[in-house]
Structures are given as structure tokens and as C-alpha cells.
Amino acid sequence: MARKLSRLPKLITRPYEDEFYHQPGAVPGTIFIDADAPPPIIFLIDYNQTNFIREQIATPEECIPYLDGESISWVDVQGLGSQEILQRLGQVFELHPLVLEDIVNVPERPKTEDYEDQLLFIARMVVPKERICGFHSEQVSLILGKNYLLTVQEEPENDCFETVRSRIEKSKGIIRKQGADYLAYAVLDAIIDGFFPVLELYGERIEELEEEVIVKPTPQTLQNIYQIRRELLQLRRAIWPQRDAINSLIRDAPDLISEEVRIYLRDCYDHTVQVMDMVETYRELASGLMDVYLSAVSNKMNEIMKVLTIVSTIFIPLTFIAGIYGMNFNTEKSPYNMPELNSYWGYPLCWAVMLAIAVGLLFFFWRRGWLQNSVVIKQN
Amino acid sequence: MARKLSRLPKLITRPYEDEFYHQPGAVPGTIFIDADAPPPIIFLIDYNQTNFIREQIATPEECIPYLDGESISWVDVQGLGSQEILQRLGQVFELHPLVLEDIVNVPERPKTEDYEDQLLFIARMVVPKERICGFHSEQVSLILGKNYLLTVQEEPENDCFETVRSRIEKSKGIIRKQGADYLAYAVLDAIIDGFFPVLELYGERIEELEEEVIVKPTPQTLQNIYQIRRELLQLRRAIWPQRDAINSLIRDAPDLISEEVRIYLRDCYDHTVQVMDMVETYRELASGLMDVYLSAVSNKMNEIMKVLTIVSTIFIPLTFIAGIYGMNFNTEKSPYNMPELNSYWGYPLCWAVMLAIAVGLLFFFWRRGWLQNSVVIKQN
Amino acid sequence: MARKLSRLPKLITRPYEDEFYHQPGAVPGTIFIDADAPPPIIFLIDYNQTNFIREQIATPEECIPYLDGESISWVDVQGLGSQEILQRLGQVFELHPLVLEDIVNVPERPKTEDYEDQLLFIARMVVPKERICGFHSEQVSLILGKNYLLTVQEEPENDCFETVRSRIEKSKGIIRKQGADYLAYAVLDAIIDGFFPVLELYGERIEELEEEVIVKPTPQTLQNIYQIRRELLQLRRAIWPQRDAINSLIRDAPDLISEEVRIYLRDCYDHTVQVMDMVETYRELASGLMDVYLSAVSNKMNEIMKVLTIVSTIFIPLTFIAGIYGMNFNTEKSPYNMPELNSYWGYPLCWAVMLAIAVGLLFFFWRRGWLQNSVVIKQN
Amino acid sequence: MARKLSRLPKLITRPYEDEFYHQPGAVPGTIFIDADAPPPIIFLIDYNQTNFIREQIATPEECIPYLDGESISWVDVQGLGSQEILQRLGQVFELHPLVLEDIVNVPERPKTEDYEDQLLFIARMVVPKERICGFHSEQVSLILGKNYLLTVQEEPENDCFETVRSRIEKSKGIIRKQGADYLAYAVLDAIIDGFFPVLELYGERIEELEEEVIVKPTPQTLQNIYQIRRELLQLRRAIWPQRDAINSLIRDAPDLISEEVRIYLRDCYDHTVQVMDMVETYRELASGLMDVYLSAVSNKMNEIMKVLTIVSTIFIPLTFIAGIYGMNFNTEKSPYNMPELNSYWGYPLCWAVMLAIAVGLLFFFWRRGWLQNSVVIKQN
Amino acid sequence: MARKLSRLPKLITRPYEDEFYHQPGAVPGTIFIDADAPPPIIFLIDYNQTNFIREQIATPEECIPYLDGESISWVDVQGLGSQEILQRLGQVFELHPLVLEDIVNVPERPKTEDYEDQLLFIARMVVPKERICGFHSEQVSLILGKNYLLTVQEEPENDCFETVRSRIEKSKGIIRKQGADYLAYAVLDAIIDGFFPVLELYGERIEELEEEVIVKPTPQTLQNIYQIRRELLQLRRAIWPQRDAINSLIRDAPDLISEEVRIYLRDCYDHTVQVMDMVETYRELASGLMDVYLSAVSNKMNEIMKVLTIVSTIFIPLTFIAGIYGMNFNTEKSPYNMPELNSYWGYPLCWAVMLAIAVGLLFFFWRRGWLQNSVVIKQN
């Protein structure tokens, strides 16, 4: 009565749910603004080996002077809640209508596309939820130009680029000496590395469930296994196309990406494969857990049945004997009518027979190992 | 007695069922008219940047003047119910006999075929059924010529091209400035986008079933899971070859499709992959649900068995004791014959023993956690 | 007692069973005649645009004049029961020893092989059994030469080429105007189209089983599902290599097949893919049915257990109470010995307690929904 | 007590078990002699179109004169039990150290390797065990030189080359007219054909199990299914790499194999694919049997539960009624105390009520179809 | 109470767990030192055909003179516990920052990368745990230069290179006559061969479990099967990418690897495929065991239910009869009230009826084969 099974959380990111606002047959390039989307905030970082500017700007047009210069500009748009700003953004960066559609009509499947003087990369970023299972998932679109990088995120919160920004600001590593392609790599690398903390959580949860499923399987355990399988399925759908996209960056060698950065992308590709590898391993473990659960439940049923069978099988014959001597056949009418009732040792003998039956049955059960197992499982 | 299990709907589109009228060994190009097929209605849209004509025409031959002109003509045939009209259509458009066969002898597997001056694309269009689960599925054949597009649908109802027609009429986007290949793309894109609303329905139904399967699994649930799996299998069969067909359009670069439209087709291809992705994800979820269902049913059985075992195990020994003192051994014939019956505290002691046994067993069950779980599940 | 489970039919075509007569290490090209094989009957059709001859001939040598002429000759051998005739056939057509072995030592896996002036195609033909489930399966070997086609069937019955023969005779379509390659295509097409009626039967049987497995699962149902899975496995083995063989005909473009006929083969290839597609779909459905069956059986067990538990749980405590007041404690020896027996309202109160317990337990079961479900399932 | 479950045979060929004597880090080319290996026996067959010699020779060096001649020499070594002889063999045939290692350190995975003037083919030969299930498996290494073939078998028994030897001796077919490459083909073909009798046994055993699993499933059945799956897994591991090896022989066209023999190898390749095909089919059947077994066991449980439920549910209420009238309420103390006991029709009425209950419950069970099914299954 | 289920060991090598210290967005090439990592120990072996030096050195810089000479140098670093030493090592060997990151930030996925004058190979080495199941797993990074080989191991213990070192020292085989590429091959070969003893352990454990799962399945068995599946999953993840890496070494033919050594690598590749093959086979066996376990548990339940059903079904009707004649209907008030009680043969007849019922039911059970099976299983 008291404790209820916790409800399954809604499918966290229903796969590409927003896409459904997309009316079949609409003009390609049409962009749809979700009413709940937060309004866009625009951040600009502009740097070269000597200078560094970081500021929030109000309108897309404020980028224009930076884009024309020789320095590297990183324009980071967070939020998709204004059709007007997004369209002006498209004009400032001269985006192909299909590119703008891919950026705005989230979720889009991760992919890369080469538009000669621009390179589009659609990525999916995951961030672990604080203290709750599951994860936050968000689309990040990267548009790489000759000396700029435009990134568009769905929401302002939950971003794993802070270390990249601080590397630029503090000129850590070689980032200030490299072009926009290296910056794009650094952002992509941060997105891929962001999968590892999420996966670590799943590793821990699977370990807990392994313990639970064998020692104390409950209906809640079943629900948890299913939930993990469902979430790993989502992770898999997020990482799989990302691998293909990075691979095609390395293989097709677009002009915008230098030879040197391609070596770094190879490293990033290796991490993507690691993530996929872990996701698949966890999926196999979770799927194995379901089998174990089913077996564990059957084991419990076996134990319950054993207790019932032992108790019933011992007492039902004894009760029958007691019933016999509870019959009211008239001993006076015939010497064959229950003479035992009047015999001197009748009652003690009756007990002796009953004890013999009980001991015999217990021996029978012990021989089969039922008594013993039934103890082993007691702790479960 | 009252409520019955709802019947499974018939396999909605029995895969290619009409094909069976196709007599093995028949002349290739023979066309078979299904008696139930609705008679064809022909719509014509003819446009260029300045003019726009939209009308229903009575005979295929009325198209001929439009086909000869420079403007783009879209001939849309709805219904396959007349052999004569379809054959005259074949003559007007100079269709290869095999093309006519593919168009008329539905269902054909989605595919694309290049006949030098014509390009055949067999597609499958799905439309969600209003308020009932399942979907309406229909073959659409596209024949693309230099300046015309012929589309042939199975039925007049359930068509998702209205937005395309209105885009042409209102000259939205660039459609009026482009050739027949762009029109073919627009139609294909509308077909692919039409899968999303159908998938959304399945997403919702799976969420409902996830709830149901854990909280209150019934035989009806099982049936629903099976039904969803079956329908997703159909969706998968519809979308999979469509992806290959679009891909071969992009890869083989037929002359009839311009470079620019190929970029749009790439976008359309991405959506096809998204659809496939979602179908596969839903299929995995549905298949996981079957496992969960089986486990949930086992859990319920466990609970039932526990109740039976607890009640039986407690009362069977007590009944045995009561049976003992219901025996009629003659206490007068021997001092060993049931002296308890005549003792002063016999009856109260008997009760005390019985209570001790009951409490002992309850403690045993509590130690195993049976009493407790049995409460937890009460709500289910 | 009466009705028995029907026996599983023997594996209809034990995969390649005759092959086992093939002694390991035998000379390649050795041919083995199965004692049960029917004696060969030879039919000849010879035609060009103007003439048509159709006759049964007694010896392979009678073909020779026809083979030398310009007209197209179709020699159709039905039955593999005579080593002598088959070897003479091999000499007449100048077959490579391995070709003769492939033709005679059935079953051979479907394949195509190019011997410069001859093209070998091993196909498998299926024909639905009349009114019984399952299908008849037979190997057909096609040897295509410059102006002749030799077909060799295992048995005279069950052949789906009659429509092809009549198309030639009545000069339907373009068959009389084309070469031997078109004839080979027509025969192949008839073989592939012959799979559709067989598949239609499976579609119907699966629909029936879907009904049965949910509404009234019996051990017979289980057997039927297994049987269907087994037969679909056979169909799959028959169609899969056939697709590869046709594909290699199209891809490798042997000289004996004209460009025009290759277009027709592409159509035939599409049908092969359709067949494969349907077989795979049915296999998935049948495999899903097995899961449903297992769940349905568990559901039935649940219902049975519920009835047992309800009845036992209600009556066992009541019986215990009745047992209590059946005890023979001597009420005269002590005021504590069962004073209830002598009280004025003893018996009615006893009934009242028992009724209260029964009602309480029924309420408990109703709360759990056991009473209710137990009604729902009644019809099953 | 009497009959015990038969023990599972040890994993017949533990995969590559001997390999473990291979110390990690040992010099490549090191050969390890298993203490149990039988000592090598060497047979020599030397022939050309006119001459034929067949003899057992004592030392590898005795081959040398034959190898130098123009005639074809087949040296067949049976047994791997002497390091010295094997190393001398290596010197006589000028084997690369890695080749000798592959030959001696069995089991090696089937493969082919081209050493310019020698071609190594590692094959696995299976022979059915007489009258027991399972099969004997042995590695055969073929080294093909310009005019000789060296074959090395693990053991002298169980060899399927006798027909090849007799074909050479009796000059059957074209073997005496061909080179060493044809001889190598003939040996390979015998090895591949040797799989068919083994597979035939599995076909029969699966048919028996199909019968057994539905009609009378026992724990032994379960064990048999598992055993078959395990053995088919071994067969699959033996045949799979063999296909790749033969394919690479055909594709890479090493100089040592003539064009003509390649046509024969194509035939051999087809047989390998047939074997694989059958193994996969049997594996699917065996895996389906496991599902059927589980369902059949559940069905049996259902039947058992039904019997228990029917008997308990009928008699428990009746026993309760009997218990009621076994109570000892004092009918003299109160008119409400069990007046039935003293009524004239009490006992007959009591029986009437009990019969009515029993009939009612039987009707209830009949309505559910429990009585009926319970009869159907009786024979199982 | 006494024996508890043994706890599952923690996921032995949580897949790439240390990777998680890797802060998303960190500078590529950043190296992270795990606090628990042992401090590095450096061993140097320098040799040519005539000389041999083997010593432990204190600082990376001590290698420099050796690296400049013509002799082959093998620097073996064991332990990753000092950032300073590792960075100095990077400078001495002029490692690319990404290479150093791959070496230090273990675990990295096995792979190979070609940096023109250096070749990086990341490998995973497994060593069986003494007397306990499971295995020790460790990353080994190989950097191959023109005349040196640098190997970096995670820990000083558990290394399978001792035989390689002794082969160099004692000049066994051709290792002293070959270059650094042969040394790299020898190390790789030792790593791959190290998988075989681990796999042998799993072969033995699976054989034990096969016995156990059929003869005496307990919850512990279930846990063991799951544990083996989990560990085989880890082995698979270790060997799979290693195969790809070795294959790419052979295929891409980097300059640093001579033609001759490539032949040896082909042999090493074959062993890798053998390992994969065995891992997959064991995985299939373990997964089959899970099915068998589930069936075996169901079988046990069947046996338990049979015992309960037999005992209950026999005694419940008998007890009912005994209950009948325990009723207290007043025989004096009516001739219809239990006249049996006063009849002369009442009691013996009552027994006769009860015996008849018991024998009848036993016959019924024997007909169904329940009595018999129930004996068979006794030993389990």
C-alpha cells in the first residue's frame, strides 16, 4: 500500500520530437521556433597570438567587423528562441537555407556537410544530470569558416566549453597559435570527452544493479534495468552518427581543415570509438542483466514452492490420519468398526506412525537437497 | 465473460498482397487491375515563373499540349481502377512496359530506375489514421521527365502533397524558379516527412505501454506490444528501401537531376536516415518491453504463490493439531489414550501451541521479506 | 486420450539430403542416380517468329537437328532417373562434366556459372501444396546456349512453366521475337513469381496463429509456430542464393545475355528481393509469436494459480476453525475446556466469524484485482 | 535413483587446446611435440600417366629421389609424434620455419599461404564417429610444390583419402593426366565432402529431438539440445575459415594452380558454401528447439497445476462442510447449536449440497476448457 | 543462514575508468598521473650480433648514447607514476604530444599510428590471475624507431616478455640478427600468445559450469555464468581492436617494418584471429548456458510441483472422506442420518474405498509418467 513503484521518467529526449512541428511538404529551409525555446544569447571571443577579446554581444550584426579581420573569431549562440535573430544570423554568416534549417529545427542527426567555404558539423552534447540518473542532451551546431567558428547551442545552461574558453584566454597549449580549424577541433573534442562522465555514471549504476539483481530482485530492479537499456539506446544514437561524421572529416579532407589538425581529429575519432565501445559493452551487460533477473525471479519462485510443498506434503498425510480417528463409526455395533480406538496403545501408536511419516518425508526432501538450498537462500 | 480481448486487426498492409494476382509466368509488363481499386482521377498543375494552371482533366491525352511546352507540368493520377486509362497514360508518357507494370501492380518495393529520358521512383507514403493506432500506407510512383513529373497514387484520399501544391500556387520558396527535378524532390521530401507524425504516435504508444507493462500487465498489454512490433516491422520495410533508392539518386547522378537539386536530396536522405533510426529505436524498445512483460508476469505469479504459501503454511499445521484432538480414542480404555482431553488446562494449552506455531511461521516469512514485498505490490 | 498432438512432418527437403550419396573423394563429375527418381521425359519446343513446334521426344539425340538450326529450341527434361539418358544428354549438349554433376546430383545450391559458350543457372522452384501447409520444392537447372535453352527438372509434376509455354505458342508479348536469353529470363521469372503464392499461404497461416496464440494457446500452437519457422528457414535458403545468382548475371554481363534482356533481369531481381523481404518479415513475425506464446502460457498459469489461491486461502482457515470445534476436550473436566461448545450462541457465532473471514479475504483479493481479471480471461 | 543424467562429453576438440603449450614469447618456428601424439608414418605415392608406385617409407630422406623426378609425388605423413622426423621433413621439403610451426603445433586455424614456390593450405577434416554422436576432427596440412604434394595429418586413423588413392591407382577420371595441383584439389575436395556425412547425422538427431521436445521433454532433452548446439558451433568454426582459404586460392590465382584446376576449385568452393549453409540452418533449428523446450516445460507445468487446482478446489470446500458438521457444539444447550444434526433429512441434504458444489465447480472448469485440455495432454 | 552468495567482484577493469579524470576540453597532450600509479622503472637492453647489454637505468636521459649508436636498443618503462620522468622520456624520444598522452592516460583503445619516423602501437596485455578466476589486464605501448624500441607498461609486475629478453640474451633464433622491427614483432607476439593461457582457464570454467548447470543448478551458478559472460566481454574488447591494428600494420606497410618482418606479423595476425575466434565461441557457449539454466530451473520447479500435486491430490479426497464420517449427525433421530456408522462393515468398507481412490490416482499419475520422472531427477 505504502511504497509505490516509481514512475518511469518520460523518454528523456524523445528522439527528435521537435521535428514533428515540421509540416510535411513545407519549404526546405523553413525554420520553426519552439515556443519554449530560450531566447538566443550571443557570446563573442576574438583572438590572435597577441590579443584576446571576450564579450557578450546584443545583435548578430556586431560580429561583422571581427569576421572581416585576420584574427580568429568564435561566435557562440546559446538558445533558439527567436526567429528574427536566427535569420539575421544566417544573413551575417551567409548560411545556406538548409544549413539554417539544420541548426534551428533541432534535433537533427549528427552529420557533417561541406559547403565549399563553410563546413557544417551537427553534434550532440551530453552532460550528466546532477545527482539524478539520466543525462541532459543538447544539439550543438558548428559552422567553420576561414577564420571564424560559429557554434549554436539549444540552451544557455549545461555547456562543457568553459575549459576551451579558458585555454584560449590563458593561452594554454597551442590553441592561440592555430587557426579556426583547431578551435573547431577543440570544441568537438570537448563534446566527445563529455560523454565519459556520463558513461561513468552508467558503469556505477550497472554495478549496483548487478548486486541487486542477484541478491534481492524486486519489480523496481526490473524497471531500473529497462530504464538503463533505454537510456543507453539514446546514448548510442547520439554517438554513432558522430563517429561517421568525424571520420568523414578525416577521410574527405575538406580544404578548411589543415593537415596538422587532421592528426588531432584522428585522436578525437579514437575517443569517439572508445565511447561507442563502452556504450555497446554496457548495453550487452544490461541485456544480460535482464536474463539474470528472469532467472532470479524463477529461483525465488522455486524457493517459495519448496516451502509450500514441504509443509503441505508433511502435514496433509498426518491430517488425514487424524481425520481417520476422528470418524464416528460405532465401535459397539461391530468388532471391525475402529477397534484401534479402544486399544490400550492406540493413541501412542498413532503418534508413532505420524512421526515416522514426517521423518520419512523430511529424509526424502533432504535427499533431494531441498531442505539445504532452502536455507542457503534465506538471506535473499 | 463480459470484456473480451480485442481482436488483432488484420495485417494492415499484408506485404505486397496484391502481387499475388500476378500469375507466375505472365508476360512482363502485364498489368492487373484490382476490382476494388478506385477509378483514376487525373489532376494537372502546369507552371513557370509567371503562370500557374491547376485543373482536373478527364483523359490522359489532355496532358499532351502541356508536356510539349517549356513550362513544368505535374500530372497527378489518383487511383488504379481502370486498365484502359492506365494504358493510355503509358502511351502518352511513352512508358516502358516494365515501368507501367511497376506503377500499376502495387505493391512494388521502393526503388529507383533510370531509363535515360525518364527516371522512375517508386515510393511508399504513410499517413497516420485519425484517432486509431496504425497507419494508412500507399504506393506513390514518380516518373520524372525533362519538364514534367508524373505521380501515380493508389487512392485519391490520404495524400500529403497539399502543401507542395500550395507552395507552387503561392510561389513560396524557390519552387517556381526551379525545374521538374526540384518538384520531384519536393514531393519526395513531403513523403519522407510524412513518416514523422506516424512515428510520433508510436513514441506515445510505447510510453503508455511502458507504464502499463510494469504497473498493470494484462493479456491485452501483451497483444498491444506484439501489435506495435508488427507495425514497426511494416514501417521498417517501407523506409529501408527508400533510403537506398534516394542514395542511389545522389550517388549515380542521373542527368535529369541537377547538381543543385542533389544538395536538397542529400537533406532528404538525412531525414530518411532519421526515420530509419527512430524506427529501429522503437523496435528495440518494443522488443525490450516483451522481456519486461514476461518478467512482470513472473513477478505477479510470485506474489500469488507467496499468498498461497503463507496462508497454507500457517493453517495446515494448525488444522493438523485440531485434527489430533478431534480423534475419538477411548480415554477410558487406557491412561495413554489422549489424556490431554481430560486435563484441566488442555484446551488453553492447545491454543497456546497453535498461536506459537503461527507466530513462529510469520516470523520466518518476515525474515525472508515475504510479508513486506507482498504489501509493496498491492497496488499493482 | 482421444486427440493426439499431430506429428511434425519430416523436414520436407532435408537440406541437400541426396548429396550424401556422394562418396567423399569421388571423381568430380561422377553422377549419382537416386533409385526413387522418376525416369526422364523430354519435351521440345522449337520456334521462331513464324513457326512453332511442340513435341515430346524419346531420346536426347532427336534434339540435334533443332539445335543446329537458327530457330530457338527449348529442351525441357523432367526427371533424373536414368544415368544413360542423362549422359547422352550431356554429350548432345557438350556439357562440362561438372555441369552435368551439378544438374544431376541434386540438390545443388542455386548459383550461376559462365562456361563461355554456355551459361549454367541452378534455380530452386517452389509450388504450394494443395490444401496442406508446406510446399513442394524442386531444383531446376537452366543451360543457356546461343540459340537453345536446356532446362532440367527433378520431377515431371509441379511445374510452373505452363504459362510460358502458352505465351510462346500463342505468341503473347515479345517472346517470339526474342532470343534464347529472353526465354531463359521468362523461365527464371516464372520460378521467382512462383514464390509469391507460397508466401501468401504463410501470411495467412501466421494471421491464424496470431489469433490462436493470444486467444487459445495450446501445445499444438507451439508446434505450428515451430513448423512455420522451420519452413520459412527453408524458403530463405532457397531464395537467398538465387538473388546472388541473378545479381551476378546482371553485373557480370555474360555475352550470352543481351543488353535488353538485362533490363528484364533487373525487374526479376527486384522480385527476388521482394520475396526475400517477405520471408524475413514472416520470420520475424513467427519469432515474435514464440515470445507471445511463452507469455500467454505464463498468463494462463497465473490464472490457474489465482483460482487455486483464492479457493485455498478462503477455505483453509475456515476448515481450521471447524477443526477447532471438532476437538474432543472434555468440557466437564474443566471450565476452560471449550466452553464455547456449551454456550447458547456458540454455533451461530462460529458461523459469523467464518463468514467474516471469508468476506475479508474476498475483499483482499478484490483489492488486488484478482477476482476481476479472473473473469476477463474466462473466455480464453 | 536408478537412471542418472548422462554426463556431457568433454568439449571434444577443446578449441586449439594444444596451442597452450606454446610458451608466450617463444622463438617463432619452435615446434612442440605433444607427448600423446602418435609417431609419424610416411606413405609415398608417385605416379605419372604410365607408372604408379605406392609404398610406406621409413625416413623423410627417402622421398628425395622422387621429388627430383618429373612424376607427381604425394607424400602423406600421419602422426606428429617425433620432433626429429618432422624437422628432417622440413629440411627435405625446404619448409619455412613458420610453415613447419603451423603444421606441427596443431590446432591451427584453416588458412592458405603462398610462399612463391610452395603453397600452404591448413585444413580441418571431420569424420563421423561410429554409432556415437559427435565427430572426430583432425588437422590436415597440405604443402603443394611444383610436382609434389605433402600432406601432414595428426593421426593415422580416420582418414577420408582412400578413394583418392584408389582413383590414382586405378587411374579413374583424369587424375593421372593432371599435375600436383589437381591432386591437391582432389584431397581438398575429399575433406570438404567429408563434412556431409557428419551433417547428415546432425540432421537426423535434430529430427529426433524435434519429436522428443514436443511429445516428451525431459531434462535429458535439454542436455541433448545444448550438446548439439555446442558441436555445431565447432563444425562452424572448422568450415568458416576453410571457405575463406579456398576463396583466396581462387581469387589470388597463385602460380602453382593452373587455370583448369581453378574451375574445379570453384566447384569445391560451392560445396564449402553448402556445408556452411547447412551448419547455419541446423544451428537455427537447434536454437529454435531451445525455445520450444522452454515452452513445452511451461505447458507441462500448466497441466500439473491444473490437476492440482481442480482436485484442491473441489475437495477443499467439501472438506470444510464435513468439518462443520464434525463440530461438537452441544445441541442440548441451545436450539441454535447445530440443529441440523438432529434433523431428519440432515445427512442426505448435506450430501446434496456437497454434490451441488462439486458439480458446479466441474462445470466452471469445463467452461474454461481445463478439463478438456487436461485430457489432450494425457499422452505426453 | 550460513552460506551467502559470494559477491560479484567489481568490474575488473572498468572500461577505461581512468579516462574519466580527463577533464572535457583539456589541452590535447595533457597527461594525467593517477595517484595510485607505481613510479616508473626503466630497463635498457642494447644489443647487436656480438654485444649485449642489459641494465636498469635511473633517468631517461641515460638512454641517449645508446639511441645514437647502430645497435638495437630496447627501453622498457614500467610504471606511470611520475609526470616529470614521463615528460623527460617524451623529450628524449621526441614523442608527439598526442603520443605521450596515449601512452600515459591509460586505458587507451589498442591501435596503431604512423608518425613517419616513429610507429606507435597501443596494445593490451592479459595475464591469468594465479588460482583465482579473472585476469590481470594492462596497457603496453610500443614506440618503434629506426634502431630502438620503447615499451611502456602500466605496472612492473605481470609481464610476459621475459622469454623475449632471454631469447635476446642467449641469442636464440634470429632475433640478434634482425632489426628493431623484429624486436617489436617479438614483443607483440608475446602479448598475443599471452591470451591463450587466459582463454584456457575460461574453457575449463565453462566445462565445469556445463556440468553444474544441468546436474545441480543453484543461484551461485547463475552468478558464475553472468560473471564469465562479463569477463569474456572484456577480453573481446581487448582483442578486437588489436586485430585491426596488426592488420593495418601488414596492409599499410609502414617504412619502419621490413618485408621479412611483415611475414612474421602475418603469423601473429593469424594468432589474433584465433584468439578472437575462441572468445566468440566461449561467449556463445556461455550465452547458451544461460538458456539451459533457465530451463533447468523450470524443470526443477516442475518436479517440485509434481510432488506437491501427487501428495495433495491423493490425500485431499481421502481426508474429505474421513471428514464425512467425522460428522456428528444424530443417527438416532433418523434412519437416513449416517447409517454407515452403525453398519457392521462400515469401517473396513470405508478403508476399501479410500484405498481404491489412492490406487486409482496413483495409476493416473503413472500413466502420465509423473511417478517415473520424479525418480529420475532424484539425484539432482
TrEMBL record, chains A, B, C, D, E:
Q: Which UniProt keywords apply?
A: Cell membrane, Ion transport, Magnesium, Membrane, Transmembrane, Transmembrane helix, Transport
Which InterPro entries does this UniProt record tie to the protein?
CorA_cytoplasmic_dom, CorA_TM1_TM2, Mg/Co-transport_prot_CorA, MgTranspt_CorA/ZnTranspt_ZntB
Which Pfam families does the UniProt entry name for this protein? CorA
Protein's cellular compartments: Cell membrane; Membrane
**Membrane-spanning intervals of the chain:** 307-325, 345-366
Q: Topology in the membrane?
A: Multi-pass membrane protein
Q: Which family does it belong to?
A: Belongs to the CorA metal ion transporter (MIT) (TC 1.A.35) family.
The protein's role, per its UniProt record: Mediates influx of magnesium ions.
User: Entry's PANTHER family?
Assistant: CORA FAMILY METAL ION TRANSPORTER (EUROFUNG)
Q: What is this protein called?
A: Magnesium transport protein CorA
Tell me what organism the protein belongs to. Answer: Nostoc flagelliforme FACHB-838
Q: What is the lineage of its organism?
A: Bacteria, Bacillati, Cyanobacteriota, Cyanophyceae, Nostocales
